[in-house]
């Protein structure tokens, strides 16, 4: 049973150790699902899973796995849609889908496609995969909530290579112009993309300063410190200042598996049987 404590507001919260345990379990499920599929994207899924853990288990987002279409729910948009294994592992851990279903990833007839499909999977708000589109969609959601006068938040996760897309910055300009303080963008800043280091492919430079130049409030955080992520995400939710907010989460591609960490080759390659065994042993030893 996960250890929990009570916040000043009387909300039951999970301890840091419990959150780390959940994150490790989701890493294991990510690797098992990709290995079973024989294809997928382990590097970027492992780099962002602590962020998803903080959002879904850190009392940040409002949702109900038993009622996926609850009108008052917050929205999460996985703009970097190739990290679908991380989202599926999270949705299974939460209870939207069965954990046993994860090994059907990318198989014929499975609803767990290589990129998430909102028509098939409960808890998936938007079908994503074409990089750069997620922030625009999130802006539309946030603007709609503003027009309706409702309090839902929109959280979207982008890759740092994705920030080379011009559409990201069009959306950033729109969000600031419309004062969308119910929108939080999280950048998975692992420094690698499919073709190599981001600084060599097309250097995005200081991503925080770029968002600030577009009128956003920004934060920098260790993307694997789940407690710090929970604190910053909670602050972004509660301390609205009339502007959208961007969290630059500094992460390690392939985090948790030593032979995958900071290796661009693991961007989109499934582990073989021996590699899966070695990775699972290493993760189990982190308990």
Descriptive report:
Helix 1 (16-37) packs across helix 3 and helix 2 (42-57) packs across helix 8 (226-238). It is globular, with a radius of gyration of 18 Å. The chain has a single domain, classed as 3-Layer(aba) Sandwich (Rossmann fold). By secondary structure, the protein is of the alpha/beta class. Strands 3-4-5-9-8 form a five-stranded parallel beta sheet, with helices on both faces. A two-stranded antiparallel ribbon has the order 1-2. It has nine helices and nine strands.
CATH superfamily: Thiamin diphosphate (ThDP)-binding fold, Pyr/PP domains
Widest β-sheet, arrangement of strands: 3-4-5-9-8
Reported CATH architecture: 3-Layer(aba) Sandwich
User: Which structural class do you get from the secondary structure elements?
Assistant: alpha/beta
Number of helical elements: 9
The percentage of residues in β strands lies in: 5-15%
Number of E-type strands: 9
The overall average pLDDT, rounded, is 95
How widely separated are the two ends?
14 Å
Succession of helices and strands:
EEHHEHHEHEEEHHEHEH
Shape from CA axes? Answer: globular
CA radius of gyration is 18 Å
Largest sheet: 5 strands, parallel
Could you say how many structural domains there are in total? 1
Q: Stretches where pLDDT falls below 50 for ≥5 residues?
A: 1-12
- What top-tier CATH class fits best? Alpha Beta
